[in-house]
Every structure is written in C-alpha cells, then in structure tokens.
Amino acid sequence: MSVAIVLLAASAAVLLLLHANLERTIETGAREQAQAVARLAADGRLPPQLPLDHGTDFIQVTDSSGKVVAASQNLIGRPPLTPSTAKDGHDTYDLDILGDEHHQRVTTLTADTPTGLVTIRVGASLHTADTAEDLTTAALVGLSAVLLPTVGVLTWRATGRALRPVEAIRTEVAAIGDRDLDRRVPEPGSDDEIARLADTMNAMLDRLEAAGIRQRRFIADASHELRSPLTVLRTQLEIALTYPHPDVRTDLVAGALQDTERLQTLANDLLLLARLDTTGHDRPDDAVDLTELVRTSADSGVPQPHPVALHTPEEITVTGNPLWLGRLLTNLLDNAQRHARRRVTVRLSTDSMTGDAVLDVSNDGPLVDPADRERIFERFTRLDHARSRDDGGTGLGLSIARDIAAIHGGTLTVEDTPDGTTFRTRLPLAQA
Prior knowledge:
Helix content is 49%, strand content 20%. The chain is elongated and about 150 Å long. It is built from seven helices and 14 strands. Strand 4 and strand 5 (90-93) form a beta hairpin. The protein folds into three domains: 2-131, Beta-Lactamase (2-Layer Sandwich), CATH 3.30.450; 193-277, Signal transduction histidine kinase, dimerisation/phosphotransfer (DHp) domain (Helix Hairpins, Orthogonal Bundle), CATH 1.10.287.130; 282-428, Heat Shock Protein 90.
C-alpha cells in the first residue's frame, strides 16, 4: 500500500512537471512568433500573408475596428477570431474553421503601427504535448503494473526471510517452561538486531536459570536447616514424655527452648531475605547518621567474647534504612566475634575519590581462603574451619549483609588487611 501511494505521488509529480514544461515551451515559441509579427507591424512592413513557424498553427492580425489586416495562409479570407470563454487564465477560441479539432494555446499581443493599433493572435498546437503526456501516462501505468507486484513479492520474500529467525526465537521461547530453563533460543550467524535480540534472550534465560537454581538450592537448604532443629526438638519432647523425672524434664525443656529460639531466628532471617529479594531497586532514602549507628551497634550493652576497637570520625551520613543498616552492622559484628581470637576492629572513613562511606569490620582470626571469598556470601554456606550449627549461626548473616549493602547501592567484600580478615562495606554518601 505504501509503495502504491509513493508510486502514485511520483507519477503525478512527473506528469505535472512534464505538462508544465511542454506548455511553457510551446507558449514561448508562440510568443516569440507574435513578437516577430509585432516588430514587422511596428515598422510598417506587415505583409498580408504571414509564414508559420514550426509548432505554430495560425496567425491573425486585426486592426482596432476588428478588420483582418494579415493572417497565415490557413486563415486567409476568414473572419476575425473572437474569444468565447476564459479557462485557466487563457482565452479560448472556436477554431472549427481550421477543419479539425485542435487543442490550441493562443497568445495575444498588441502593437502600435503607423496606421494605428493592431491585435496579433498566434495559435500554437498542444498536440505534441498531449501526445507526450499520453505516452508518459501509459508508460507510468505499465511500469506501475509491473513494479507493484514485483516489489510486493520481493518485500514478502525479504520480510519472511528476515523474520524467520524471529519466528524461530518465538517458537523456542513459547516451548520453554519453568522446568526447561536450560534451553536456549537459536542465534543467527548475522550481526544485526535479530542476533542481538537472540543474545539478549539467551542472557535473560541464563539469569532465569541461575535464579531458579538458587531458588531450588535455597529451598533445599532451608528445608534441611529447619529439619535438624525440628528433629531434635521432637526427640527432646518425646524423651520428656517418656521420662517424667523433673531434673531430666527441666534439661530437656531448656534444650527444646534453645532449639525453638534457633528456629525463630532462622525464620526471621528467611523472612528478611524474602523482603530483601522483593525490594528490588527501590533504594531507601532516609538520612542515616552512620557514625552514630556504628557506635550504637558496637556498644550494645551485651557482653561480647572480644573487645571492639572503634575508629570513627565525627559524622558520616548515608541514605538508607536505619533498621536494615543496623542489621548489616550487627551481622558483621557477630561474624567477627565468632572468628576473632583476641580482638575486633571497626573503622569508618570516607573515600574522596568515589564519594563512598567505607566501613571495615575486622577480626584477628583465621584468614579466609581466596577461593572461598565469594562462597561465604552464599546462603547457608558454612566453611569447615569456621562456623558450625551449634554456635548459633544460621548461615544467612553474610548473605543478608551483602543484600542490604546492594539495596543501598553499595558493596560488601572480604579482604586481608593489617587488622586481619576485613569485611569492607562501601555505601554512597548522602547528597548535601
């Protein structure tokens, strides 16, 4: 449809330009003929019979009284021509006296002669222009009749060929279910938008597959973590029913209460992780005095196994959620206390190059192997030489801390520093 409209517009433009150019050429010739006759009349040398130039059909000269004083051979003895109507800005004349129907363009001039004013009328035939227009119209119609089907077929084939990879991608995506995330869409060997679409789709499927794997692993690990304290709790309760001795029952109830607290802690951690996962990229925007928060978290009033050495400036403000940032600090401090031998060090500073607040929580315990520095942030990960299920850890603290840092636009990494194993948190400073 678009091609047909373009062809129609182009054909109309060509015909209009051709028509205007041919008529202008014919009118120019007729005017030159009339001007030549006018010069003869002005010089008093006007002959009774005037010769016709090529492309001129007739000439007639009349005086002020309407009498014919000169004419071309085909109008000798004919009455003066009189205009009948005005059409397109040009006078039209009844030219049946010429014996045929003529499409004429008549040019009229007046000239001053020794005997008075005369009117000169020169008629130029438009037959050549009409013929050229008819031939051009027929050629354009024939060309359009051939070109439109050809363009339609070529467009259909080219579009089908171009969209074939898209259809293959659509078919493959439609066939991928929640259990087939290992499948990938076919990638064409070209370097165009379709190839980039396929690459983007496969990258998205990679992320979905990785997310699915993490989710299944998380569910399996959570089930395992919940099963152990539930099994112990049930065993303790069964023994308490079997052996009703007060001393035995008291010890069993105390153990059951400890396992219940562990279950409660684990459930709270799982709920917090679920909230962090659903928060997405909506960064909290409260102004938080990070210096005061660090001091409050380090001096909680609860006795700790190792002393905490604080190195904090006067005031550093970040943007975020104070409760979540407090949980990040608590998790890092708890982790440091579990691994420290004698001391825990907390340093808070700013990085003028990046505009970040830098929080270092260090312990002088065993260093983390470089191969494990990413794995320790995975959920339910416990290194063999580090945490155990009996020391109160759920295996979620560092994962929660890193998620909180990421939600606040920051990072959490583990490094070796002079203070020992250091967990370094970077958070953007609040804008002034």
